[in-house]
Design brief:
27% strand; alpha/beta; Quinone Oxidoreductase, Chain A, domain 1; 339 residues; 30% helix; Rossmann fold; six-stranded parallel β-sheet; 2 domains; seven-stranded mixed β-sheet
Length: 339
C-alpha cells in the first residue's frame, strides 16, 4: 500500500509498505479520507516536538472496517478513531483526561496513521473505546472532521464564555468554533487576514468578519464598546496573534490560546497589568471522550456544516504535493484520498 511517512523536520516521503497484518483483537480500516491537520504541518516544519518519526502521519480519519479480528467489530462498519491510545486505567484516564496519560501513543504521531490506504487499529484501542462508529448515512466528508470538531467542543466547555467572542483565524478550526458559538447564542466576530476565508465565513453565515488591519481592529473595538468578552485563538500563536488577542479583549475577559505554538514561543505577561486587567488566560488542546461523543452526535444529526469546508482532495500518491499545498496556506481544508 502507499503511505506518506514523516521522517523528520522538512522530510516526508511517499513509501510503499506492506498492508498491515492483524493480531487477535485488531481491525483493519480502509481509509476513505484523511484530513491534513495543522499539527502535522507544524511537526514537518519543526515547530512542535510531540511526534515520533519515522511514522505514517494522519489522525483525521474516515474509513470502513474491511477486516476484523475483534468480536465486537463487524466488517462494513463506517468508522473513525479517537487517535489517543492511552492506558485506560490511570487517574487521568478514569476522569476522561486521557491526553495526560503517561503511556499515551498517538495514531499518526507515534503509531502509523491514516496517510495510507489502510490503517491497523489495535485491540487495546477498541477495548478502551477508541474506535468510533457512525451510521452508514454519514458521509466521509463529514466524518473526517469528527476529531477536530471534538477538540473545539472540548475547548468550548473549558472556556469562560459570556456574550461576545472573537475568533482569531477563519480556517476549519475557526469556522467550527464560530458555528458552535453561534449555536450557543453568542455574538461572534471572526478575524482573518485572507479575504477568501472571510468570504467563506460569510457564506456559512457565522458572525461578522474583520481583517486584521489597524482600521478594522479599531472598528471591532468600537462596535464591542471596548473589546470582546472572550478571545479564542484558532491560529498559530505567534507574537502577532498573541498581541492581537490582548488588544481586543476587554478587562476581565478570557483568552484561550487554543492554536498551536512553536516550541520556542513564549508568553510574557506583566503581572501587575494582569492583576488589574483581570484577564483569564488559558489554553485548551485535544479532546475528551465526552467531546468526541458530542461531535459524533452533531455529525450524525447534521447539526453543523462541515463538508463545505473540504475544498481540496489529493490521492495518496500525491501526498507530498498535498502537504506542500497546505504549507503554502492554500485552500481551506485538504484531505488525502486513501483506498
Amino acid at each position: 500500500m502507499q503511505t506518506i511517512v514523516f521522517e523528520g523536520q522538512d522530510r516526508i516521503a511517499l513509501q510503499e509498505k506492506p498492508q498491515p497484518v492483524l493480531n487477535d483483537g485488531d481491525v483493519l480500516i480502509e481509509v476513505d479520507l484523511c484530513g491534513i491537520c495543522a499539527s502535522d504541518i507544524a511537526a514537518i516544519n519543526g515547530e512542535v516536538t510531540d511526534y515520533s518519526p519515522p511514522v505514517v502521519l494522519g489522525h483525521e480519519i474516515a474509513g470502513i472496517i474491511v477486516e476484523s479480528r475483534h468480536p465486537e467489530v463487524q466488517v462494513g462498519q463506517k468508522v473513525t478513531v479517537n487517535p489517543m491510545i492511552s492506558c485506560g486505567t490511570c487517574d487521568y484516564c478514569r476522569v476522561d483526561l486521557d491526553k495526560y496519560c503517561s503511556q499515551i501513543e498517538g495514531i499518526g504521531h507515534d503509531i502509523d496513521g491514516g496517510y495510507a490506504e489502510f490503517l491497523k487499529f489495535p485491540k487495546h484501542g477498541i477495548d478502551t473505546g477508541k474506535l468510533i462508529t457512525v451510521p452508514d448515512s454519514v458521509l466521509p466528508e463529514n466524518l473526517m472532521f469528527l476529531e477536530p470538531l471534538g477538540c473545539c467542543i472540548n475547548a468550548m466547555r473549558e472556556t469562560i464564555l459570556s456574550e461576545s467572542v472573537a475568533i482569531l483565524g477563519a480556517g476549519q478550526i475557526g469556522l467550527m468554533f464560530a458555528q458552535l458559538a453561534t449555536l450557543q447564542g453568542l455574538e461572534v466576530f471572526l478575524l482573518e487576514p485572507f479575504a477568501h476565508r472571510r468570504d467563506f465565513a460569510s457564506f456559512l453565515g457565522v458572525g461578522r468578519t474583520f481583517d486584521i488591519t489597524d482600521d478594522q481592529i479599531k472598528e471591532l473595538i468600537g462596535v464591542t464598546n471596548g473589546g470582546v468578552d472572550t478571545v479564542i485563538s484558532a491560529t498559530t500563536n505567534n507574537q502577532k496573534a498573541i498581541d492581537l488577542a490582548f488588544q481586543i479583549i476587554r478587562r476581565g475577559g478570557c483568552i484561550n490560546f487554543f492554536g498551536l505554538s512553536a516550541h520556542d514561543q513564549n508568553l510574557t505577561v506583566n503581572l501587575e497589568k494582569l492583576h488589574f486587567s483581570g484577564h483569564k488566560l488559558m489554553a485548551s488542546w485535544a479532546f475528551s471522550r465526552w467531546s468526541l461523543g458530542q461531535a459524533q452526535q452533531m455529525i450524525t444529526n447534521h447539526e453543523i456544516q462541515l463538508e463545505p469546508m473540504l475544498t481540496t482532495r489529493f490521492p495518496i500518491t500525491s501526498g507530498i504535493e498535498a502537504v506542500a499545498y497546505v504549507r503554502q496556506g492554500r485552500g481551506l481544508k485538504t484531505a488525502l484520498i486513501g483506498g
